[in-house]
């Protein structure tokens, strides 16, 4: 507080604190408290709200535990989101290392610009572009058939299409944190390891990855939470057998009209994301301060 006051003065510093407090209370704390309240109450007619039937219980959460289809979709969303996170890391880590340690400034600028420009378009439109690309008579099937790899078109929609769409959709959330971490690594450390005869995989395992662990943890947290909470990619690129947990939540709110059960499902997803954040920080041995940087 003293540093903030010394830099901006008491008036402006107080305004910043008020705005931050309003943001936390009004846009973070209040909606989540309302979601918890809805999740613990039954779905009642307006006339019964506040009456003897309007009591707190765990019935909505117990419904998820006793519904095998929804439970299976939830578990599938968990491991599929983890798979999206791993695939995104595998794609982004070599690129981040090249941008931070090997590429010239002009080449790095061009690559970053090429990656960022598509994200000026709405996420729905980007996903629709993947929908066209993966279509039965789309460019991908036409290209593979012209090469002789396929004899007839394939249906790419389903888990594979959702995975590809999500990796593309969240690539920047993994790339930039890793890039920022690796960029601060002195090239002399890598050169010294090479001069001492260290293999490339050992350099990355012993030097680069430990140095970039805060960025890797940040990218993994962001990617997993975005993948677990995604709705557009599974809805457009998924097949009937590749439903996502967010689609179940959407159905409870907007098709089933049961906001209480939908809030309970959303609460479970929120707890999952919080657990992933804590576990990731513990595994990488970083703090929230390191992630915030």
UniProtKB/TrEMBL annotation:
Key word Transport present: yes
Organism field: Salinarimonas ramus
Annotated TM spans: 12-34, 78-97, 103-121, 128-149, 161-179, 214-237, 262-284
Cell compartment(s), UniProt: Cell membrane
Membership in a protein family: Belongs to the binding-protein-dependent transport system permease family. CysTW subfamily.
Name of the protein this chain belongs to: Spermidine/putrescine ABC transporter permease
Entries under SUPFAM superfamilies matching the protein: MetI-like (SSF161098)
Membrane topology of this protein: Multi-pass membrane protein
Gene Ontology cellular-component terms listed: plasma membrane
UniProtKB keywords: Cell membrane, Membrane, Transmembrane, Transmembrane helix, Transport
Gene3D superfamilies: MetI-like (1.10.3720.10)
UniProt-listed CDD domains: TM_PBP2
Superkingdom, taxonomy of origin: Bacteria
ABC transmembrane type-1 domain: residues covered: 74-280
GO biological process, one term: transmembrane transport
């Amino acid at each position: 507080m003293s540093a903030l006051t010394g830099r901006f003065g008491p008036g402006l510093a107080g305004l910043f604190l008020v705005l931050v407090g309003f943001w936390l209370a009004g846009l973070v704390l209040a909606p989540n408290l309302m979601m918890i309240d809805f999740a613990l109450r039954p779905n009642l007619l307006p006339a019964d709200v506040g009456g003897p039937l309007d009591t707190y219980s765990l019935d909505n959460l117990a419904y998820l535990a006793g519904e095998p289809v929804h439970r299976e979709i939830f578990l599938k969303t968990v491991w599929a989101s983890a798979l999206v996170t791993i695939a995104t890391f595998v794609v982004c880590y070599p690129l981040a290392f090249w941008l931070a340690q090997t590429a010239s400034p002009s080449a790095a600028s061009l690559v970053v610009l090429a990656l960022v420009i598509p994200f000026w378009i709405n996420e729905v439109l980007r996903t629709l572009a993947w929908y066209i690309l993966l279509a039965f008579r789309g460019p991908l099937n036409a290209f593979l058939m012209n090469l002789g790899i396929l004899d007839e078109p394939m249906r790419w929609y389903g888990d594979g299409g959702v995975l590809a769409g999500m990796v593309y959709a969240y690539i920047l959330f993994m790339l930039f944190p890793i890039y920022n971490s690796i960029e601060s690594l002195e090239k002399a450390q890598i050169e010294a390891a090479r001069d001492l005869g260290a293999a490339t995989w050992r350099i990355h395992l012993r030097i680069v990855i430990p140095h970039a662990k805060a960025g890797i943890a940040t990218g993994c947290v962001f990617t997993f939470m975005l993948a677990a909470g995604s709705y557009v990619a599974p809805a457009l690129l998924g097949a009937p057998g590749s439903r996502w947990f967010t689609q179940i939540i959407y159905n409870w709110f907007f098709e089933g009209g049961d906001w209480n059960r939908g809030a309970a499902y959303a609460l479970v997803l929120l707890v999952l994301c919080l657990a992933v954040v804590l576990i990731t920080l513990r595994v990488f041995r970083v703090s929230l301060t390191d992630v915030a940087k």
